[in-house]
Protein backbone atom coordinates (compact mmCIF):
# COMPACT_ATOMS: atom_id res chain seq x y z
CA UNK A 1 0.00 0.00 0.00
CA UNK A 2 1.50 3.35 -1.01
CA UNK A 3 1.04 6.69 0.71
CA UNK A 4 -0.56 9.49 -1.32
CA UNK A 5 2.10 11.94 -2.44
CA UNK A 6 -0.11 14.97 -3.05
CA UNK A 7 -1.27 17.32 -0.29
CA UNK A 8 -4.91 17.47 0.75
CA UNK A 9 -5.19 21.13 -0.20
CA UNK A 10 -3.96 20.39 -3.69
CA UNK A 11 -6.60 17.70 -4.08
CA UNK A 12 -9.59 19.67 -2.81
CA UNK A 13 -12.08 20.22 -5.57
CA UNK A 14 -12.55 23.72 -7.02
CA UNK A 15 -15.18 26.07 -5.64
CA UNK A 16 -17.36 25.83 -8.76
CA UNK A 17 -19.76 23.34 -7.18
CA UNK A 18 -21.87 20.81 -8.94
CA UNK A 19 -25.48 20.36 -7.79
CA UNK A 20 -24.60 17.64 -5.30
CA UNK A 21 -21.94 19.75 -3.57
CA UNK A 22 -24.29 22.73 -3.49
CA UNK A 23 -27.08 20.73 -1.87
CA UNK A 24 -24.64 19.27 0.67
CA UNK A 25 -23.53 22.78 1.64
CA UNK A 26 -27.13 23.94 1.96
CA UNK A 27 -28.03 20.98 4.16
CA UNK A 28 -24.97 21.58 6.33
CA UNK A 29 -25.94 25.21 6.90
CA UNK A 30 -29.50 24.13 7.67
CA UNK A 31 -28.39 21.63 10.33
CA UNK A 32 -25.81 24.00 11.87
CA UNK A 33 -26.35 27.05 14.11
CA UNK A 34 -24.69 29.31 11.53
CA UNK A 35 -27.70 31.54 10.88
CA UNK A 36 -28.59 31.87 14.56
CA UNK A 37 -25.04 32.99 15.38
CA UNK A 38 -24.48 35.28 12.38
CA UNK A 39 -27.79 37.11 12.06
CA UNK A 40 -27.46 39.10 15.34
CA UNK A 41 -24.06 40.45 14.25
CA UNK A 42 -25.57 41.87 11.08
CA UNK A 43 -27.99 44.08 13.00
CA UNK A 44 -31.75 44.63 12.58
CA UNK A 45 -33.55 43.13 9.61
CA UNK A 46 -33.04 44.94 6.33
CA UNK A 47 -35.53 46.64 4.02
CA UNK A 48 -33.40 46.71 0.88
CA UNK A 49 -30.35 44.53 0.33
CA UNK A 50 -28.16 42.95 -2.33
CA UNK A 51 -27.08 39.40 -1.39
CA UNK A 52 -24.04 38.42 -3.47
CA UNK A 53 -23.51 34.66 -3.47
CA UNK A 54 -26.84 34.14 -1.73
CA UNK A 55 -26.61 30.35 -1.75
CA UNK A 56 -29.80 28.70 -0.51
CA UNK A 57 -30.91 31.98 1.06
CA UNK A 58 -30.76 30.70 4.66
CA UNK A 59 -29.05 33.83 5.99
CA UNK A 60 -30.65 36.31 3.59
CA UNK A 61 -34.13 35.03 4.39
CA UNK A 62 -33.50 35.59 8.10
CA UNK A 63 -32.32 39.17 7.46
CA UNK A 64 -35.20 40.19 5.19
CA UNK A 65 -37.67 42.50 6.91
CA UNK A 66 -41.39 42.29 6.20
CA UNK A 67 -42.04 44.18 2.96
CA UNK A 68 -38.36 44.30 2.03
CA UNK A 69 -36.62 44.00 -1.34
CA UNK A 70 -34.09 41.17 -1.50
CA UNK A 71 -31.85 40.96 -4.55
CA UNK A 72 -30.08 37.60 -4.61
CA UNK A 73 -27.08 36.99 -6.85
CA UNK A 74 -26.53 33.23 -7.27
CA UNK A 75 -25.04 31.42 -10.29
CA UNK A 76 -25.42 27.82 -9.03
CA UNK A 77 -28.58 26.08 -10.39
CA UNK A 78 -29.30 23.94 -7.31
CA UNK A 79 -28.98 26.99 -5.06
CA UNK A 80 -31.25 28.96 -7.38
CA UNK A 81 -33.88 26.23 -7.04
CA UNK A 82 -33.68 26.42 -3.23
CA UNK A 83 -34.11 30.19 -3.40
CA UNK A 84 -37.13 29.83 -5.65
CA UNK A 85 -38.72 27.46 -3.13
CA UNK A 86 -38.79 30.32 -0.63
CA UNK A 87 -40.96 32.59 -2.80
CA UNK A 88 -44.37 31.60 -1.32
CA UNK A 89 -43.14 32.11 2.24
CA UNK A 90 -41.47 35.40 1.35
CA UNK A 91 -44.56 36.64 -0.48
CA UNK A 92 -46.62 35.96 2.64
CA UNK A 93 -44.36 38.43 4.45
CA UNK A 94 -44.44 40.93 1.60
CA UNK A 95 -40.79 40.28 0.70
CA UNK A 96 -39.89 40.79 -2.96
CA UNK A 97 -37.17 38.39 -4.13
CA UNK A 98 -35.31 39.36 -7.31
CA UNK A 99 -33.02 36.52 -8.38
CA UNK A 100 -29.99 37.35 -10.54
CA UNK A 101 -28.73 33.98 -11.88
CA UNK A 102 -25.20 35.15 -12.59
CA UNK A 103 -21.78 35.60 -11.01
CA UNK A 104 -20.79 38.84 -9.32
CA UNK A 105 -18.64 39.70 -12.34
CA UNK A 106 -21.70 39.42 -14.62
CA UNK A 107 -24.07 41.45 -12.43
CA UNK A 108 -25.74 44.23 -14.46
CA UNK A 109 -24.40 47.69 -13.73
CA UNK A 110 -27.63 49.29 -12.37
CA UNK A 111 -28.16 46.69 -9.61
CA UNK A 112 -27.63 48.16 -6.14
CA UNK A 113 -29.27 48.36 -2.71
CA UNK A 114 -29.04 49.97 0.70
CA UNK A 115 -27.18 47.03 2.26
CA UNK A 116 -24.80 44.62 0.55
CA UNK A 117 -24.09 41.13 1.92
CA UNK A 118 -21.38 38.72 0.76
CA UNK A 119 -21.35 35.65 3.01
CA UNK A 120 -18.78 32.90 2.52
CA UNK A 121 -18.06 34.03 -1.01
CA UNK A 122 -14.72 32.80 -2.35
CA UNK A 123 -13.98 36.19 -3.88
CA UNK A 124 -13.77 37.85 -0.46
CA UNK A 125 -10.57 35.97 0.42
CA UNK A 126 -9.22 35.06 -3.01
CA UNK A 127 -9.95 38.28 -4.93
CA UNK A 128 -10.78 40.67 -2.09
CA UNK A 129 -9.44 43.81 -3.74
CA UNK A 130 -11.11 43.17 -7.08
CA UNK A 131 -14.40 42.26 -5.41
CA UNK A 132 -14.32 45.35 -3.19
CA UNK A 133 -13.75 47.62 -6.19
CA UNK A 134 -16.48 45.88 -8.21
CA UNK A 135 -19.00 46.42 -5.41
CA UNK A 136 -18.24 50.13 -5.13
CA UNK A 137 -21.40 52.02 -6.01
CA UNK A 138 -23.67 49.00 -5.42
CA UNK A 139 -24.51 49.87 -1.80
CA UNK A 140 -25.63 53.06 -0.10
CA UNK A 141 -25.71 52.38 3.66
CA UNK A 142 -23.36 49.52 4.51
CA UNK A 143 -21.51 46.52 3.07
CA UNK A 144 -21.00 43.32 5.08
CA UNK A 145 -18.69 40.39 4.34
CA UNK A 146 -18.83 37.12 6.28
CA UNK A 147 -15.41 35.47 6.06
CA UNK A 148 -14.01 32.30 7.66
CA UNK A 149 -11.94 33.20 10.73
CA UNK A 150 -11.16 29.88 12.42
CA UNK A 151 -7.52 28.90 12.91
CA UNK A 152 -8.10 25.95 10.64
CA UNK A 153 -8.94 24.98 7.06
CA UNK A 154 -11.64 26.72 5.05
CA UNK A 155 -11.31 24.40 2.08
CA UNK A 156 -14.63 22.57 2.58
CA UNK A 157 -17.41 22.52 5.15
CA UNK A 158 -16.26 19.74 7.47
CA UNK A 159 -12.50 19.91 6.84
CA UNK A 160 -11.92 21.13 10.40
CA UNK A 161 -13.14 17.80 11.77
CA UNK A 162 -9.83 16.28 10.67
CA UNK A 163 -6.45 17.09 12.29
CA UNK A 164 -3.94 19.06 10.17
CA UNK A 165 -1.77 16.02 9.44
CA UNK A 166 -4.74 14.43 7.65
CA UNK A 167 -6.36 17.36 5.81
CA UNK A 168 -3.02 19.00 4.92
CA UNK A 169 -4.66 22.38 4.25
CA UNK A 170 -3.62 25.89 5.20
CA UNK A 171 -4.82 26.61 8.76
CA UNK A 172 -4.28 30.35 8.67
CA UNK A 173 -7.60 32.20 9.19
CA UNK A 174 -8.99 33.27 5.83
CA UNK A 175 -9.97 36.73 7.07
CA UNK A 176 -6.27 37.56 7.61
CA UNK A 177 -5.63 36.97 3.91
CA UNK A 178 -8.65 39.13 3.13
CA UNK A 179 -7.28 42.04 5.13
CA UNK A 180 -3.87 41.74 3.48
CA UNK A 181 -5.44 41.83 0.02
CA UNK A 182 -7.56 44.86 0.89
CA UNK A 183 -4.71 46.89 2.39
CA UNK A 184 -5.14 49.85 4.75
CA UNK A 185 -7.07 52.08 2.32
CA UNK A 186 -9.92 49.56 1.94
CA UNK A 187 -9.98 48.18 5.49
CA UNK A 188 -13.44 47.65 7.05
CA UNK A 189 -14.82 50.04 9.65
CA UNK A 190 -15.23 47.20 12.13
CA UNK A 191 -14.86 43.42 12.46
CA UNK A 192 -16.91 41.20 14.78
CA UNK A 193 -16.55 37.50 15.41
CA UNK A 194 -18.78 34.60 16.33
CA UNK A 195 -18.23 30.87 16.80
CA UNK A 196 -20.66 28.26 15.50
CA UNK A 197 -20.94 24.52 15.05
CA UNK A 198 -20.86 23.09 11.53
CA UNK A 199 -22.81 19.80 11.47
CA UNK A 200 -23.99 17.15 9.06
CA UNK A 201 -25.81 13.87 9.61
CA UNK A 202 -24.65 11.02 7.35
CA UNK A 203 -26.69 7.89 6.77
CA UNK A 204 -23.88 5.67 8.08
CA UNK A 205 -20.17 5.55 8.85
CA UNK A 206 -19.20 4.49 5.33
CA UNK A 207 -20.98 7.51 3.83
CA UNK A 208 -19.12 9.82 6.22
CA UNK A 209 -15.75 8.27 5.40
CA UNK A 210 -16.36 8.43 1.66
CA UNK A 211 -17.33 12.10 1.94
CA UNK A 212 -13.91 13.00 3.32
CA UNK A 213 -12.00 10.87 0.83
CA UNK A 214 -13.97 12.41 -2.02
CA UNK A 215 -13.43 15.99 -0.87
CA UNK A 216 -9.71 15.34 -0.31
CA UNK A 217 -9.45 13.47 -3.63
CA UNK A 218 -7.65 10.57 -1.96
CA UNK A 219 -7.54 7.21 -3.72
CA UNK A 220 -9.27 4.60 -1.57
CA UNK A 221 -6.31 2.21 -1.33
CA UNK A 222 -3.66 4.61 0.01
CA UNK A 223 -2.28 4.73 3.54
CA UNK A 224 -3.52 8.33 3.91
CA UNK A 225 -7.05 7.25 3.03
CA UNK A 226 -6.92 4.46 5.59
CA UNK A 227 -5.81 6.94 8.26
CA UNK A 228 -8.69 9.27 7.41
CA UNK A 229 -11.23 6.45 7.59
CA UNK A 230 -9.88 5.27 10.93
CA UNK A 231 -10.01 8.78 12.35
CA UNK A 232 -13.61 9.27 11.23
CA UNK A 233 -14.59 5.90 12.73
CA UNK A 234 -13.02 6.82 16.08
CA UNK A 235 -14.38 10.37 16.36
CA UNK A 236 -17.76 10.40 14.60
CA UNK A 237 -20.87 10.50 16.81
CA UNK A 238 -23.06 7.47 16.27
CA UNK A 239 -26.80 8.07 16.61
CA UNK A 240 -29.92 5.99 16.09
CA UNK A 241 -30.41 7.82 12.77
CA UNK A 242 -26.85 7.49 11.47
CA UNK A 243 -23.56 9.32 12.01
CA UNK A 244 -23.09 12.96 13.01
CA UNK A 245 -19.95 14.89 12.08
CA UNK A 246 -19.32 18.36 13.50
CA UNK A 247 -16.54 20.90 13.88
CA UNK A 248 -16.25 24.36 15.41
CA UNK A 249 -16.04 27.29 13.03
CA UNK A 250 -15.51 31.00 13.53
CA UNK A 251 -16.78 33.71 11.22
CA UNK A 252 -15.65 37.32 10.91
CA UNK A 253 -18.25 39.92 9.94
CA UNK A 254 -16.49 42.81 8.20
CA UNK A 255 -18.55 45.97 7.80
CA UNK A 256 -18.04 49.15 5.79
CA UNK A 257 -20.44 52.06 6.38
CA UNK A 258 -21.26 55.09 4.30
CA UNK A 259 -19.21 58.11 5.28
What's this, in brief?
The chain has a domain at 16-154 and 169-198 and 250-257: Rossmann fold. It is 36% helix and 27% strand. It is built from twelve helices and eight strands.
> How large a portion of the residues is in β-strands, by DSSP E?
25-35%
| CATH 2nd-level architecture of the domain at 16-154 and 169-198 and 250-257 | 3-Layer(aba) Sandwich
CATH fold call of the domain at 16-154 and 169-198 and 250-257 = Rossmann fold
What's the helix count?
12
Name of the CATH class of the domain at 16-154 and 169-198 and 250-257: Alpha Beta
- Amino-to-carboxy terminus distance: 61 Å
State the helicity in percent bands.
Answer: 25-40%
The CATH superfamily of the domain at 16-154 and 169-198 and 250-257 is known as Vaccinia Virus protein VP39
Class per helix and strand makeup: alpha/beta
**Low-confidence runs:** 1-15
Shape, principal axes of CA atoms: globular
Radius of gyration: 19 Å
Overall pLDDT level: 92
DSSP strand count: 8
Main beta sheet, described? 8 strands, mixed
How are helices and strands ordered from N to C? HHHEHEHHEEHHEHHEHHEE
Structure commentary:
The chain has 259 residues and is of the alpha/beta class. It has a domain of 177 residues: Rossmann fold. It contains twelve helices and eight strands. A hairpin with a 2-residue loop joins strand 7 and strand 8.
